[in-house]
Amino acid sequence: RWLAWGWCLERPGTGVFPHERDLLSRGGPPRAGSKTTHKMRSNSTTTKAFLSALALLALAVWQVEGRTSVRFNAALEFEKAGILECSKPTIGKRVGPPYPLPDWENMYSKLDVQTRRIYEVVGQNPKEMHIQNLYSEGLEIQDSTASADIDLVVYERGGLSADTLQAVNSIGSDQVVEEWLRESNLEDWRENNERARPIPRKRPTDGKLRVVFIFGEHGREIVTTEMAEYFVKLLSEASVETLMPIFEDRTFVDDVLAALDEAVIHIVPCENKSGRRIVETPDENNGQGGLDKDPNLCQRVNKRIADPNRNWPLRGGTKPWNYKSDSEDGPGHSPLSEPETKLLFRVYKSVEPIALVNVHSGMHGMFMPPDYDPIMHNSADILAQVKLQSKINDRWMGGKCTVGAGGHAVGYVAYGTHNDFVRKGFGVPSTETWEVYGNQEAAYYDCFGMFNPIEKSVLQDYVRNWTGAALEHITHLHKGLIPGIRSPPNEFSKEVAEIPNPHVCGITQAHVDAMNGLGDIAFGRGDRAERFAFVEEAMRRTPTIVMPTLNSPVSTTPSAAIGTATPPALQTGGKDTAGQLGVNDRLFIGTTKAKVPSTYSLMMGSYTIMIFGLLFVTLSFYTYRRVSLGRTGRRGGRPRRYRVWDVV
Known about the structure:
The chain is an alpha/beta fold. It has helices at about 1-10, 20-25, 35-65, 75-80, 110-125, 160-170, 175-185, 185-190, 220-235, 240-245, 250-260, 275-280, 340-350, 380-395, 405-410, 420-425, 445-450, 455-480, 495-500, 510-525, 530-540, 600-630, 645; strands at about 130-135, 150-155, 210-215, 265-270, 355-360, 365-370, 400-405, 430-435, 545, 560.
């Protein structure tokens, strides 16, 4: 309307406003070149410029508002769903540019140097260790591929068994992935419906503990590969004599060695090698602020600008409603299109692990599924693991970590993630995400300091402590503290029940009730059948939150739903529920990526833009009229122009 008003005030060929023609009709039209005609043309030109600017601003706001016309107040919806308050420590401090840069000579190691040292360590202990390089071409896109490789380190204390070597040596080619894609309906996985079924397991879950640790999934998270190298070296010489000087706790060391005797550890020291090589490439913008594009040190994704942690089938291809094509969270061309995800799919298919730890940096945290929803799954194995994570957090990190559901603790939900698919797709009951370091106060372009320690002593402390946490996690698996792993699938052990209920993120009163009921069962309090029924009911009434996505926009404010799914069967000797998603195994529509989930309202942002934009244009026009023309109303001998309201 503004655009039409501005350009239709003056009709072609007349040089006057329509209403002026009516006012002047009795006196006849003004003479060509007369003062009246000049005033009217000047007035028309100024008005057209002003109103055209307003029209363009309105058009821009309308475009933004039209794409993001979904209002979601996270704080309100979380309150409706009954999500409880949780502990979210903020760690770090802000520094100004120039920002710190990695010391590749004395503190951190470049990828090639690190890889060479890992091969040397494995070569010195061939009885217990094996390393294998795996290669993938990735999906061909526009007549080009993006090949990649990973190194897989395998450790088995006492000697590599024939079963372990057979599993590693039988890792198939990319054809394994292609066959699964042909046999599966990706739409079912994107919707996460009942037709998306796990890949059948062939290896029994009561045998040796097969645990996978993934490091370096994002290029800029350099500290994770430092931890990987330290972990490999520590395992290669694990004994009382080598572990006691590091951890100074004989009981802990004995538990670790007992667990390692019955475990097979698989380590990928750096998953995203192409992204890491970009990080190591010199860039004059590294350490600088106020840039118009990210420097190399900020590289998160692989060289094809796809995030390996968004390229998996579960909810794969689903995009937040505020998704931008240049986002660093690009999911890739299609699920499993990237070589990194193809490689890991092949590893999981052959090894069939019982547990996965995906190691990242960017904050201090330990997370459980799901990543695609802010409410944590309510099942016995998940509840036990968050209690154990809280214990590990207190012991090794002094309580610095945020613990709970990944989709809540991080501050945003994510789709097509690594751990979400491995849990459901491969039936792995323990899939944890660890964020081992983060300076949450760092500036946007301080990518090295945001994701990695900048002092050598701090780096050494973090590497040691998180390695201790990894070893303790293995002991928890070995002792059967996680339901379904060397223990009944739906019961807490007494050791887990004794841990106080933690203030973790993404849980509701239903989760607390389930934890209390499982604790009663562990200690034999009350009637056993009645307690199981109580826990089942608590899990049944776990709420869900439905939120809009770019794929499935919801025009109304989303709301919480209670008891919309069926809980897993709770029984003492029933079927192992590992990999089941329990009450939350439903179609969840995700939300936006934000640092803190206080509100997800870009509509409010567009209103703010519009208000300030109108104010700016109005003040600019007023200043131009009052200052540029001068007090005399003349500039360069030209007469003062009429204003719109002078004529009306």
